[in-house]
Design goal:
Elements: H1 12-27, H2 33-39, E1 53-62, E2 65-69, E3 73-75, E4 77-85, E5 91-98, H3 104-112, E6 122-131, E7 136-143, E8 146-151, H4 153-158, E9 166-172, E10 184-192, E11 195-202, E12 208-216, E13 222-223, E14 226-230, H5 236-244, E15 255-262, E16 266-267, E17 271-278, E18 282-287, E19 305-310
Parallel strand pairs: 1-4, 3-9, 10-12
Antiparallel strand pairs: 1-2, 4-7, 5-6, 5-8, 7-17, 8-9, 10-11, 12-17, 13-16, 14-15, 14-18, 18-19
The structure holds copper (II) ion (CU).
The site of copper (II) ion has 6 residues, from loops.
Length: 311
C-alpha cells in the first residue's frame, strides 16, 4: 500500500486504523451521536475570529478515485477550511504550500512516496485531517499567500491505494493573524533535539465535541494530532512496536478504531483550531506519526505518545 504522508511512510498499523475507521463509520450511522455533532462542526473556534475567509470544499468518490469540488483561489490570512465529505469513506483536505517552481505532481510524488524526509519546498499548512463519511469538518488556519495543493491524505490512506485526490489552490495575500484560542490547547512541544512532548492546557478533553487549538512546535519538523481510544494497559514499548509494524494484519486488539480523530499536518511554528469529537469515555492515546524534515524516527518514538483519560 502506498503511503500518503508528507514525510511518509505511515506505519501500516496506522494505515489500518484509518481503514477500520472508514468501515466503522459506514456502518454506525444509527448509533452515533458523534456523527451528528461532527456534521454540525461548522463553527470551530471558541471565540469569533477577526474576519476569516471561508474555503468551502466538498469531496466525493467517482469510481475508485475521488474528486474535490470548490474554489481554486482564496484570500489568505485567517481561513476557515470546511470539508463536506459526501463520499463513502474517510477523506481529508490537507493544505500543502509549494515553493519555487515545484509542481503539484512533484508534491504528490513526495506526499505519496516512501521517502521519510520532507523537502524544504513543501510546507504543511493544516486543513482537515479526517472527516468521516457523510459529515462535514472545519478548521481555522492562517495561510500565507502562495501556490498550494489540497491533498486527500486520509482518503489515500484508506482507499484503493491509488494516488490521492488533489486540487490546485492559489492563496492570495491577506492579513495574517493568530489562530483564535480555544477552550483546550494541545501542543506538540519540543523540549530538546529529537525529543517531543504533548502538553494540554485549558479544559480537559471530554466525551463529545471539544474546541481545540493544536500548536506545532520544534525546528524543521511537522506534527499532527492523532487520538484513538485504547483498552487494557499495553506498554508504551508494545504500542511503539505495533505502530512501527509493517504487518498488513488487523489492528492491535487494544485499539478501538471507530474512535480515531486526526488533525491535518502542520509545520512547526503553526497552529490550527478545530473541533474534535470524542465518541466514548476511556483512555485515549495521543500520538504523532510524522518525522522531522530530515527523517529520523517517527515522533511517537520520540515522546509524542501520551495517554489521557476522557470522561
Ligand atoms: Cu510530530
Amino acid at each position: 500500500m502506498r503511503s500518503a504522508l508528507l514525510n511518509a511512510p505511515r506505519s501500516a498499523a496506522a494505515v489500518m486504523l484509518a481503514v477500520a475507521v472508514g468501515v466503522a463509520g459506514c456502518g454506525s450511522s444509527s448509533s452515533s451521536s458523534s456523527s451528528s455533532s461532527k456534521s454540525s462542526a461548522g463553527t470551530t473556534s471558541a471565540q469569533p475570529a477577526a474576519s476569516a475567509t471561508t474555503l468551502a470544499l466538498s469531496i466525493a468518490e467517482s469510481g475508485k478515485a475521488s474528486k474535490y469540488t470548490g474554489p481554486t483561489s482564496v484570500k489568505g490570512g485567517l481561513v476557515t477550511v470546511k470539508l463536506m465529505n459526501s463520499g463513502k469513506g474517510p477523506h481529508g483536505a490537507q493544505l500543502v504550500r509549494i515553493l519555487g517552481k515545484h509542481t503539484i505532481i512533484q508534491a504528490l510524488m513526495q506526499v505519496g512516496g516512501h521517502n521519510t524526509k520532507t523537502p524544504s519546498w513543501l510546507h504543511a499548512e493544516g486543513g482537515i485531517g479526517l472527516a468521516d463519511p457523510g459529515t462535514s469538518a472545519s478548521a481555522m488556519v492562517d495561510l500565507p499567500a502562495g501556490n498550494y495543493a489540497i491533498v486527500d491524505v486520509a482518503g489515500a490512506q484508506s482507499g484503493s491505494g491509488g494516488p490521492p485526490a488533489f486540487a490546485p489552490l492559489t492563496v492570495t495575500s491577506g492579513q495574517s493573524a493568530p489562530v483564535p484560542a480555544s477552550a483546550t490547547t494541545v501542543t506538540a512541544t519540543a523540549p530538546s533535539k529529537d525529543h517531543y512532548k504533548w502538553q494540554i492546557a485549558g479544559s480537559p478533553l471530554m466525551v463529545g465535541a471539544n474546541n481545540v487549538t493544536f500548536v506545532s512546535k520544534g525546528t524543521q519538523t511537522l506534527h499532527l494530532l492523532d487520538a484513538i481510544r485504547i483498552t487494557g494497559n499495553p506498554s508504551s514499548a508494545k504500542i511503539i512496536k505495533d505502530l512501527s509494524s509493517n504487518s498488513n494484519g488487523p489492528p492491535p486488539s487494544y485499539i478501538d478504531p471507530s474512535t480515531e480523530i486526526q488533525t491535518a499536518e502542520l509545520d512547526n511554528g503553526k497552529s490550527l483550531s478545530t473541533r474534535v469529537t470524542l465518541s466514548k469515555p476511556g483512555t485515549y492515546l495521543l500520538f504523532c506519526h510524522l518525522r522531522d524534515r530530515n527523517g529520523g524516527k517517527p515522533h511517537y518514538a520520540e515522546g509524542l505518545l501520551s495517554r489521557i483519560t476522557v470522561k
